[in-house]
Amino acid sequence: MIDYNQKPILIFWETTKACGLACTHCRASSMENPLPDELTHNEATLFIKSIQNFGKPYPVLILTGGDMMRRTGLNNIIETAEKYGIPTSISPAATDLLTPERIDYFKSHHILSASLSLDGDRDMHDWLRGPGVYDKTLELINLFNLKRLKLQINSVVMKKNLDQLPELLKLLIDNNVKTWEVFFLIQTGRAIDSEDLTPEEFEDINHWLLFVMNYGIVVRTVESPIFRRIIDQGNENYSGELYHKLISKTIDLLGLPESKNIPSRVSNTRDGNGIIFVAYNGDVYPSGFLPYKLGNIKENSIVDIYRDNETLKLLRNSSNLGGLCGACEWGDSCGGSRSRAYARYGDIFAQDPACLYSDIGAQHTLNYSEVSTVIHQHYKSQPECPGNP
User: Which residues contact 94 (CB under 8 A, 6 or more apart)?
Assistant: First the structure.
């Protein structure tokens, strides 16, 4: 059991801002060339080497961007991580830079896994990522399968693709994708605030994701730690309107799951607790969606920042959280999205506005015990839905 006060399990490194895509929802702006203050080769090498100071087992270093394929000296970065025994995964953009030869190179240098984004059908995905990216992504999924390099698919959930989620699930299963990481939208000022979900939609989708795991696909969520609370609660007495619709559509496409397996417990990580983000210029943040600067690796090591930053220490103790997140019985396992709290309220310690608990509390000015009672009554009042595990 890793003590998240001492080390993260994942370090996300934005190797470059350069990217040829212009994704509508992205926290970064598209740019063809890297910025001048990008970490130099020597700074990058020292950063990678310093990860050893966390001690074994080392955190997994995830190379992101922008598009990490546009990072100058990418081979040196990968080979440096390999030299120092730092486990490494990659998150490239779906472009022509990702060739069969490059995938062979990644395999030969012990890259653990890769992730690609896929958010819905062709129209939906190309609206979000750019013309032609959907077809390129499917081509690359086939290529990764052919090369036998472990692949994870990441999907952003928003109002525009809610109805497409069962079809997307079927596409992943049909293409032998074993891990699905579902990103829940954080308002970033990129003109898509209208695509954000209501607390009821968050609740329904997370319950549907719990059902989805019965089809043998591993589901992880990003900026939706309530998924862990829902795993604990289960689906037995829950059937919201959207949940019922998604379940019915899923069963029509895939049939009932052959077995109803209890999902394995997911790690209790959240922004700054078990994960950390290093920007292209060395700035350190609790996550890539939480623009709250903690320091810079040019001035202090990633180990010192992660272990000693006072804000991170406070964030890791759920009793320091505000509103219902601080009083919730799932505070340690969930704790709410700190990124969403910051985006909505400008306060990283505020309650997560996407949680149904928080929404009911805000609407009715109830204390936590009253909210808990209302929630459980809400569950029990719902009709049984076909396919509930």
Answer: 21, 116, 117, 129, 133, 136, 137, 140
Distance of CA 266 to the CA centre of its chain: 13
User: Could you list the pLDDT tens digit for every one of the 389 residues in the chain?
Assistant: 899 999 999 999 999 999 877 666 554 455 778 899 999 999 999 999 999 999 999 999 999 999 999 999 999 999 999 999 999 999 999 999 999 999 999 999 999 999 999 999 999 999 999 999 999 999 999 999 999 999 999 999 999 999 999 999 999 999 999 999 999 998 765 546 678 899 999 999 999 999 999 999 999 999 999 999 999 888 887 878 999 999 999 999 999 998 655 556 568 899 999 999 999 999 999 999 999 999 999 999 999 999 999 999 999 999 999 988 988 888 999 999 999 999 999 999 999 999 987 766 566 655 555 655 655 555 555 444 433 32
Half-sphere exposure (CA, 13 Å, Cβ side) for 35? 17
pTM, to two decimals: 0.91
